[in-house]
Amino acid sequence: MVSDLTIKILSILALALALCVQADQATTGVTCEDLDQDVCAFAVSSSGKRCVLEKHVKRTGQEAYTCRTSEIEADKIKNWIETDECIKACGLDRESFGISSDSLLESHFTEKLCSPQCYDSCPNVVDLYFNLAAGEGVFLPKLCEAQGGNVRRGMAEIRSSGLVAPGPISPAKLMAAPAMAPY
C-alpha cells in the first residue's frame, strides 16, 4: 500500500518535472526551420530574425514548402508567431513568398494595415511594414494618416519613393550651384 507521503512526494516530483520541461521549451524559442508552412510567414525567430516561406519543386514535380531564417532582423521582437487574427486584420496571407513595398500601393491593403485592428494590435506586422515603407522614403504613420484624407497624395509619395519631381527649370537656373546642407 502506498502512503500519503509517497503520493505527495511523487506529485511534487511530477510537478517539478513538468515545470522543467516548460522552462526548457521557453528557452529554446522559435526556430524558423522547425515551423510548419501554415505559421512560418510573419514569424520571428528567437534570435530576432524574420522567418520566410520558400517554395521548392521536387524532382517528381511536386511543390514543397520550407521555412527558413532570413537575414532580416525585426526591431525589438523575438520569439513571435503571428496570430491568425492579425493575419486577417492586416489583410495578409500566410502563404506569402516574401513581401514587397508594392503592397503599400494597393489602397485596399493599406486600409487594412492602417486599421485600428491591425495598426494598434499587431506590432510585428506594423514593424515589418514600417521598415518597408521607410526603405521607400515613406513614414508609415503619415501614410496611414493619409488613408483618412488625401489617399492619392500618400500613394504618390510611395510611387516616387518620397521624392517629388521638380517642376520645369529654366536654363538660367541650371547654372546655379546646389544649396549646401547646414552644419
Q: Could you list some keywords that capture this structure?
A:
single chain; 183 residues; two-stranded antiparallel ribbon; 9 helices; signal; PAR1; PAR1 protein
Describe this structure in words.
With 183 residues, the chain is mainly alpha-helical. The protein has two domains: 29-81, no CATH class; 83-164, no CATH class. 44% of the residues lie in helices and 11% in strands. The chain contains nine helices and two strands. The protein has a two-stranded antiparallel sheet with strand order 1-2. A hairpin with a 5-residue loop joins strand 1 (49-57) and strand 2 (63-73). The protein is globular and about 70 Å long. The chain starts with a helix and ends in a 9-residue tail after the last helix. The relative contact order is 0.10.
Q: Order of helices and strands, N to C?
A: HHEEHHHHHHH
Tell me the count of domains. Answer: 2
- How many distinct beta strands? 2
**Rg calculated over all Cα atoms:** 25 Å
Largest sheet: 2 strands, antiparallel
Q: How many alpha or pi helices? A: 9
Q: Output mean pLDDT.
A: 76
Task: Please tell me what the overall shape is.
Answer: globular
Strand order of the largest sheet: 1-2
Helix content range of the residues, please? 40-55%
What is the CA-CA span between the terminal residues?
87 Å
Low-confidence stretches: 13-26, 161-183
Q: Which class of secondary structure composition applies to the elements?
A: mainly alpha
Strand portion: 5-15%
